[in-house]
Design brief:
The structure is a homodimer. By secondary structure, chain A is of the alpha/beta class. Helices cover 32% and strands 16% of the residues of chain A. The first copy, chain A, is built from 10 helices and 14 strands.
Chain lengths: 391, 391
């Protein structure tokens, strides 16, 4: 895979053409070897940082984003114009205290916010890679992040944390690079993707591929974007991020039109209008092929498979301090998935704390103002910071 | 709405053009008044019967099919070439004993297997009704069934039973026409559609409407069928019919190719291949606009709303004998939905039995060989048959 020097205009809206800064050129001179065998480099990784790296480079926190997230953890996301996904957690005196920590958030490999992904121009053809982009894995995403830390001169991060797919990256980090991680917080995570989760992802992919504007992946060459298919994919996925109780509490059977039912196919119920909005807002900021690649990476994730099926072996002798957090109403990455990881860590006499937060807000709870979740996270970070000599 | 005298060729595959028999012309001379205000009649209802009506017409069982079901309860479905959805339950000496009962199963109003639906030709235009078909409700489906029973000369059915949307029809029957129902068995049912269920239906509808071959509903006029969109809708829905445990047990993370992962977007995991098959098989037998109309009917279902929000009032003084059945792993129509109905019936001192079957096979359990479910159903029918003097 040849070098990609700078961002090029892309076919998808809003995110297209925006020059994300900073970026690091990684995989040069030694290229990155992907799980699929393709070598990659030099390649671009876009990231954001918050706070300052201390003198002994011991105060870095690596935040790993979820499937539909990006590097804009805090402040205003320049593509959406909205606050970052953990905006209220990051800043002086806040949970991710920028007076104390140096917070790094990279866009994942395969993404569409500045890091090399399928929407980028393949210099060999002058067109978007599209489906010629190599299939990537969670391990590949983490390998790219390792190169970013090398680039930033950071040997060990104080903490790596993230929810959902971010939590998968955290687990991969802790298992494969334990010496580079002081503490790890996998939130609403799992050590493998379940059959039902693969099924939901496959529905999303089929929705995208069914859109004629997908053009076999080559929509950029035709100046199109499979908006309808991507919106349907997002709608289906969004249901899995909430819970039945949250849907009931937020929407119930409330109608859009207070005058009663209209007997038609417009958005009759408020929940329909909400979902449609989730779909249409997403297509303005996300690339359809990136969605295919990133969901595929999640499907492939099976940490134990790299250790002959043993999750215990994955964490053998780990020096990492863990805090696992799950949510009672999360049916996408339910608590038993976290518990299985805790059992494997306990079998290694690892330093692990585990809390299941009682909430009806579902998988996306880690993105919401859940006071108990935040209190747990703050307590763990403070304790770990004392041990690390950061306080 | 004008008369439709006989089935016409239709644009969707396999089911298209097949002349379903028998059919009854209903709503003549008095037309059916739909919830949306449209009057309908004469209109065609296709149905199947099994066994013989006894002399005093007291042995009729009305089986109500689910969203994707049809009137071919037993024997070979002439469109799919496969066994009917309860084939092994119907026959001499079987649970629905054709030596004892006269089993009737009509295709629902709005369906695509012979009963008047959106794919039918509108004699006013000579084209398919498509979205000019009136939006129908579960109550409308039941009203059409009442007319069918009138047509067959049956004042009271011994039992009305059905699962999922069939169970909604059973509840509607028992509430609105208690004098015409001796016993009722709503299986895996609910008295209203939840916000999450509406959300899943909306994803399916948007997938259909996003398919360019949908043509704003007028695909028949263009000799097309939105196969891709309908397949995606079916795939998303099919996930909700199973359970996470069933997906895990049946598929886990098993690969299609035993040689290992291929790093691509073909069906890599067995669960993907299974889902794709569910999608493609469905489009050969189902009309996309029927899918829109029938899902909409389920969304609108809210039995208590017809009684100022009181489910207790819906069953005031009911003489009907009820048996409710739910399944532990059904997350689409979970047990609390059945329990709410049981509470309303108990408040009326109704004759009601309720069993939650412990199984991991999810919502579709009522279509599967679940011995405990079948034993419960057999026991209830036998007891009711004794009371009705059929044994």
């Amino acid at each position: 895979m040849a070098s990609i020097e700078k961002p090029e205009a892309r076919a998808y809206p809003q995110a297209s053409g925006y020059e994300h800064r900073p970026v690091a050129m990684l995989g040069d001179p030694t290229p990155l070897i992907l799980d699929c065998g393709t070598t990659l480099g030099p390649f671009r990784t876009a990231y954001q940082t918050y706070g300052s790296l201390n003198r002994d480079k011991s105060n870095a926190i690596l935040a790993c984003h979820a499937l539909s997230g990006d590097q804009y953890l805090a402040g205003t996301n320049p593509v959406t114009g909205r606050a970052g996904w953990w905006d209220d957690l990051v800043g002086p005196g806040r949970l991710l205290d920028t007076d104390r920590y140096f917070v790094i958030c990279p866009n994942v490999l395969g993404g569409c916010m500045g890091t090399l992904g399928p929407a980028d121009i393949d210099p060999a053809t002058g067109k978007s890679y599209a489906l010629n982009f190599p299939v990537i894995t969670i391990a590949d995403m983490v390998r790219a992040q390792v190169l970013l830390l090398d680039h930033l001169g950071i040997d060990q991060v104080f903490c790596v944390l993230g929810g959902s797919m971010g939590g998968m990256q955290v687990l991969e980090w802790a298992a494969k690079f334990p010496e580079r991680v002081f503490s790890a917080v996998p939130i609403a995570a799992a050590a493998h993707h379940t059959a039902q989760n693969i099924a939901f992802h496959e529905v999303g992919r089929q929705a995208i591929m069914a859109d004629r504007d997908w053009c076999g992946g080559d929509y950029a060459a035709h100046d199109k974007h499979p908006r309808h298919g991507l919106a349907v994919a997002r709608m289906a996925a969004h249901i899995t991020y909430l819970s039945e109780a949250a849907f009931h509490r937020k929407f119930g059977r409330m109608l859009q039109d207070s005058n009663g039912v209209t007997y038609g196919f417009e958005a009759e119920f408020q929940v329909e209008s909400y979902l449609r909005h989730q779909g249409s807002a997403f297509v303005d900021r996300f690339d359809a092929n990136s969605y295919l690649y990133i969901t595929r990476a999640m499907d492939y994730f099976d940490l134990a498979a790299d250790y002959e099926g043993s999750l215990v072996a994955a964490f053998a002798g780990t020096p990492v301090r863990f805090c696992l957090i799950s949510f009672t109403s999360d049916w996408l990455f339910p608590t038993p998935e976290s518990r299985a990881i805790v059992h494997a860590l306990n079998s290694n006499a690892a330093n692990v704390s585990f809390v299941e937060i009682d909430t009806d807000t579902g998988h996306d709870s880690f993105l919401l103002d859940e006071p108990e979740f935040r209190a747990i996270l703050a307590g763990f970070l403070n304790g770990a910071a004392k041990h690390r000599g950061l306080i």
